[in-house]
Design goal:
The protein has about 220 residues and is mainly alpha-helical. It contains 8 helices and no strands. The chain has one domain. Helix 1 packs antiparallel against helix 7 and helix 2 packs antiparallel against helix 5.
């Protein structure tokens, strides 16, 4: 039952997000420009809410505050390093410097990021089903604007629409792989779950403060955010 939930929400957060992003691209350019700030604002809120109201409190229930918060801080530093070493980015602007790489590298970076997302979803569900659902919704919320940007970059890199869609689908399936592997591992060693929760929270916080909030600063009126 639990594994079925994990697989279902993993597919929803990966394939479902890409499908919604694909539909989003069918909107007129003017409509997309109006909706993107709203999507990014929603993603920021859900990520920070899941981190501070769900993941960190769960970690604090099983770990001393100093240990849990050390892992949160260490995770933020870790994801900063990953962003520099691996293509771990969530840029939503087609002119972003990090998107000036080849389309194939973008897909590889996405596959790695999606794998980690799957592991985060599995860890949350192992901790509790409500936390797993909330975490999955947070993942979905930031995947949609990211995938919209990825579609645009792949099309600019010479991919046809059908190719961009199916390559993104293939890349997203690493979410399911990460979720299943994490489930098989975490159910055997419960003691590591609080630490995974702390690191998962740091992932959400890093995405929000290092990518999404700076993106919102590009919009000069409060109505757009």
């Amino acid at each position: 039952m639990l594994l079925t939930l994990i697989m279902g929400f993993s597919l929803l957060s990966s394939v479902g997000s890409i499908s919604l992003a694909g539909l989003f691209l069918l909107f007129p350019e003017k409509t997309r420009q109006l909706l993107i700030p709203c999507l990014i604002s929603y993603a920021t809120g859900t990520l920070l809410g899941a981190a501070f109201l769900g993941l960190i409190p769960h970690a604090l229930n099983h770990l001393p505050a100093s240990s849990a918060l050390t892992f949160v801080l260490g995770g933020i530093v870790l994801f900063f390093i990953l962003e520099k070493v691996v293509i771990w980015r969530h840029c939503h602007d087609k002119n972003c410097n990090t998107h000036r790489t080849a389309g194939s590298l973008i897909l590889i970076g996405d596959a790695f990021h999606n794998f980690v997302d799957g592991a985060i979803i599995a860890a949350a569900f192992v901790a509790s089903i409500p936390l797993g659902i909330a975490t999955s919704l947070a993942v979905i919320s930031h995947e949609i604007p990211q995938e919209v940007g990825d579609f645009a970059i792949l099309l600019e890199s010479g991919y046809k629409k059908e190719q961009a869609f199916w390559f993104n689908i293939m890349s997203s399936l690493s979410t399911l792989i990460g979720a299943v592997l994490a489930y098989l591992f975490l159910t055997e060693i419960d003691i590591v779950i609080p630490y995974i929760m702390a690191i998962s929270a740091s992932s959400f916080i890093y995405i929000a403060i290092a990518d999404l909030i700076p993106t919102l600063h590009h919009y000069t009126t409060i109505k757009k955010v």
